[in-house]
Write a structure and sequence with these properties.
seven-stranded mixed beta sheet; 123 residues
């Protein structure tokens, strides 16, 4: 069974950091691009960052530039989203998703999704 599992979410104060993990089971991530998306209450799901199968990255959310980074370790079958200098507006459910080879800017471009992990930034 192909599955993506996110972890690492939680409650953090403004200015704090979190590292989200996206672990794959049932398939290897070697030939997949992995995107991180987020969805806040009442808002559409938006792309955050994506990493292609060759390790190149794409930023889909200007608001996270310089604060969030994405990385992968194919040997561990895992992709991470490092989030620094968190702001209240980063509060959302964060999802990872997989698609063959190349990143897509839209959610419907992805084939597999995790269940999401809640990130809440609040004092």
């Amino acid at each position: 069974q192909l599955q993506l599992v996110e972890s690492g979410g939680g409650l953090v104060q403004p200015g704090g950091s979190l590292r989200l993990s996206c672990a794959a089971s049932g398939f290897t991530l070697d030939y997949y691009a992995i995107g991180w998306f987020r969805q806040a209450p009442g808002r559409e799901r938006e792309g955050v960052l994506c990493i292609n199968d060759n390790g190149s990255t794409t930023n889909y959310a200007g608001s996270v530039k310089g604060r969030f980074t994405i990385s992968r370790d194919n040997a561990k079958n895992t992709v991470w989203l490092q989030m620094n200098s968190l702001k209240p507006e980063d509060t959302a459910i964060y999802y990872c998703a997989a698609v063959n080879y190349y990143c897509s800017s839209t959610p419907r471009g992805y084939d597999y999704w995790g269940q999401g992990t809640q990130v809440t930034v609040s004092s």
